[in-house]
Amino acid sequence: MSAAPRRSDRTSRSDRTSRSDNSRRSDSTRAAILAAARERFATDGYERATIRAIAADASIDPSMVMRYYGSKEKLFATAADFDLHLPDLSQVPREQIATTLVGHFLKVWEGDETLQALLRAGATNESAAQRMREIFGTQLGPTVASIVADPGEAGTRAGLLATQMLGFALCRYVLRLPPVVSLRQEEAVAWLAPTVQRYLTSDTASS
Amino acid sequence: MSAAPRRSDRTSRSDRTSRSDNSRRSDSTRAAILAAARERFATDGYERATIRAIAADASIDPSMVMRYYGSKEKLFATAADFDLHLPDLSQVPREQIATTLVGHFLKVWEGDETLQALLRAGATNESAAQRMREIFGTQLGPTVASIVADPGEAGTRAGLLATQMLGFALCRYVLRLPPVVSLRQEEAVAWLAPTVQRYLTSDTASS
């Protein structure tokens, strides 16, 4: 019990230089962890990437990873740096926008298992859900805003688009409902594109 | 190391009656746990219901709950006994089927937080995902089969319906995308019903 005050005394004697050294060390440790995490998650996938392996890659103790990031899910949500690479829709003929978008989304989901991992993590972890809201707000939102007639409706239309595309991803890759898993990619595009087209361009909800 | 054979010897001496007593005790313990879990999850909701409280309600040790069910998520998936109370669509005029279904789903989702918990659990836990596939197969599947023109297409059409309705639930209740959260219920029905109508009744994917 007497050790705590002594440690605290010692800390208060530490000079400005060593404090800023500590802070720099902490920043560079975090950066090393994030860099290692990004590479591990990309290479091994979310499930197989372990805190232990990430710590080893960053040459630090696993307990430090937990101290800085709390859990694998939170580390993942912080490291996840997804660029959906959405196409420039202003260059796409109006009647092909939905087909282009749906096809693009399916390619992204099939090609990047970390996006599936983010969806799974987002369902139970608030940091990951927050990351999905950011992706929605900074990438999907502006893309939809660039093509809708009334910018005031861009948020709602982007939200509806998200309900359909994330719902498809949920049923196909996460819950694995058999008839959704067995749809061929071109069938999926043929079914989903008219839905997305309506969400983006119909005059009113029920038209 | 020598204890194992001795225990095994002792077990082999136990008579038929005590074995079946054990098995009956185990069955009744499981039943007591499930009954307590159903009540706790319904009363307290998934997040607040604890293994400790469920064990206390069933008058057994929490370690026994974990021994029988492994985790709170698995216990929940086993206890979850959802009846979607889908309406008899054969009695609904054809052009009102989608509006009726979408309105019904929204009421179910808004009224039962355990269904939201099942969706969250299903994203990360295979037992819960399996439970969602069962609900899909035994409740949504037959309902859709009762109204589609070609029974061979019922699975695909029910799957597409699921992608939209589960995707809406995911974005509104779990990920909480702002524009989806802020949709009024009647706006949601107006946007989603034409999608569902098309998935259930359109002649071909792209019509």
Automatic annotation (TrEMBL), chains A, B:
Pfam families: TetR_C_16 (PF17920), TetR_N (PF00440). Residues 27-87 form the HTH tetR-type domain. Keywords: DNA-binding. Residues 50-69 bind DNA. One of its GO terms (molecular function) is DNA-binding transcription factor activity. Residues 1-28 have a biased composition (Basic and acidic residues). This is AcrR family transcriptional regulator. It comes from Micromonospora polyrhachis.
